[in-house]
């Protein structure tokens, strides 16, 4: 490599320069004549023009990082739920308006282009979106970091609702190409599977393996209002050149090609499950595939500027977003010990200093374990390493006083009850220097319940970092009307320091600000109503209360509790149609995992209830129910700014944090919620008079459960609840198929109601009545909505990343000079 200074065009961002870039990129980048260009081509050209303007920043950030020999963070995640990039990049560069003008100059409407961009939906829900918000904040804060994951060809499935039921269609998001990524075919690592281990000269060799190559695709992640950038590097599988040459030589060309295709399946699709997919061999291959490539890449980068591993842990931090990337631990051990011949003890010490792990769930069924037998077939060397780490850990634990054989069995990395399985979370804890939960409550319960033995063994290892969201996407981009109003009131600095929003409190009682605030919310409701009218054929009153539950469909999130309230409200309106009712539009959105029967039945119930309610002439505008299909990042950006009420009603102790709750409050919705996850901290921040808290606390849930919870008592004692449940059971909402929802009834009434829907029902309905009363008191509701926005400072992902950088990764921002 030579270091000549290249002569390149300096790209400024005036309207003229942008227009020139657009023309150049359309012609030389897309290869289209303006007369033949479709909107899709213009979007591509515009994306390239924007990307060009990011590249100079990217290169100078990378150079600075090398010069300063900074410590880098490797953020490993199976999922990055990015959404669209175009608007985000324009806002980060501060060129939204000039680009709009430049496009108008060539006769193109930018707003129409924006909707053509497919979402990069490489994630299921909260966990993947968190990773995307974190990348944005790392870049904005200048934290030298990389996101590492898989470049799935098929992202999260598209959800259609046909006859009220979820129908999944594949999301081939790369159909029109991806202008944001740079393919790096020269960056390629072999990833091995299978084979066996042999001892040679005192070292272990892993032999007789098959391999697939991992090749890199890089995306620039721009920081907001800084020239700092970061990189998201996603791996794609490529069959090795020589694969199945024998079949080829025997003239079986077709079989040779088929084998190549099969070996590339590893990066084909995202598993559409929002918890764990343990048990599926291809899933395990995916997990190993991306962490192996990442560990090889990280070592290569480290060795470019260091000749020994002596300073490894000063220069590298590896973060595990949940347990999916935990195989990075034995993989790094293998590379250090077997390949680079670092002594075992030194290697393990490095590993323990570089790794950290975030736990995302307390639900035992969602904690990943892998069958020892499967591991021994697919990754025999890694299994040996895990056993060795385990032996050493158990030896130290018993030296430290853990003599009780029952305790040893409990904490072992290998679950010996029944079929032997490796407990991935335990491996992550033992090999990391920090383990965090994602809200105060979750971190407490994590150390009290699922990891209590480890918390006693390693008291300093456990910590909390409450999740956050990026205000750039979730306020500035999603709600230009509210963002503009806030800018006028307190200036634009909140985008980079969300605590600035606290200044909104001084506008308390300012009638013109409150009026403008209501107008901004109303315009977002009109925007949504307009889109919904388009595909439902219904009209929505923008002055009705927009009540929103948007998130994955899951029993623990309790969409059923919400539906029960809707049914009771419907029955009440029909019983007393002449009364004054606070008009409501109840909106649901969310995907069900494709194999999750109950979640799919819940979607069908919501749609059947909607059909009944929306077409009942007695009800009219007093109640409307909508299930909006295909929830994803772009739909969230449309829905969330239009909400008045945010439904965060999980059974206390089940939602680790939630981030939807933060997005909605930031957009001026009031929360109705349980004391669960980050709801508790939201309540502390905004004040209990500006939030509707109801239901059993986590401790009360435990108490009820151990005292013997009897849901049928609630059914028998509450007449309105009984009527609603009987309507569900007897086909009131499904006259053509009366037994359709009988499982829902039995789950709640007869089969234990694991998520305690019935126990919280009465309190929920009461809280909803309080919501109605507050909403009609317009000044009071507006004041609370403003308090919610003002109190969101600590829920910025910038705050979360600053905590990770300081307390867990111990990294400093790059100096840009
Ligand atoms: C924020 C977000 C989530 C997480 O929502 P929760 O309410 O916290 O479960 C899921 N999906 C998308 C698309 C999101 O933007």
UniProtKB/TrEMBL annotation:
E.C. code = 2.4.1.1
Cofactor(s), by name:
pyridoxal 5'-phosphate
Q: Which GO terms describe its cellular component?
A: cytoplasm
Which of the seven top EC classes does this enzyme belong to? transferase
- PROSITE patterns per the record? PHOSPHORYLASE
GO terms, molecular function: glycogen phosphorylase activity; pyridoxal phosphate binding
| GO terms (BP aspect) | glycogen catabolic process
Q: Which Pfam families match?
A: Phosphorylase
> Which terms are listed as keywords in the entry?
Allosteric enzyme, Carbohydrate metabolism, Glycogen metabolism, Glycosyltransferase, Pyridoxal phosphate, Transferase
Reaction(s) catalyzed by this protein? [(1->4)-alpha-D-glucosyl](n) + phosphate = [(1->4)-alpha-D-glucosyl](n-1) + alpha-D-glucose 1-phosphate
Q: Which residues carry this modification: N6-(pyridoxal phosphate)lysine?
A: 663
Q: Where does the source fall among the domains of life?
A: Bacteria
Function statement: Allosteric enzyme that catalyzes the rate-limiting step in glycogen catabolism, the phosphorolytic cleavage of glycogen to produce glucose-1-phosphate, and plays a central role in maintaining cellular and organismal glucose homeostasis.
Q: Which family does it belong to?
A: Belongs to the glycogen phosphorylase family.
Q: Which NCBIfam families match?
A: P_ylase
Q: Which PANTHER family match?
A: GLYCOGEN PHOSPHORYLASE (PTHR11468), GLYCOGEN PHOSPHORYLASE, LIVER FORM (PTHR11468:SF3)
Q: What is the name attached to this protein's record? A: Alpha-1,4 glucan phosphorylase
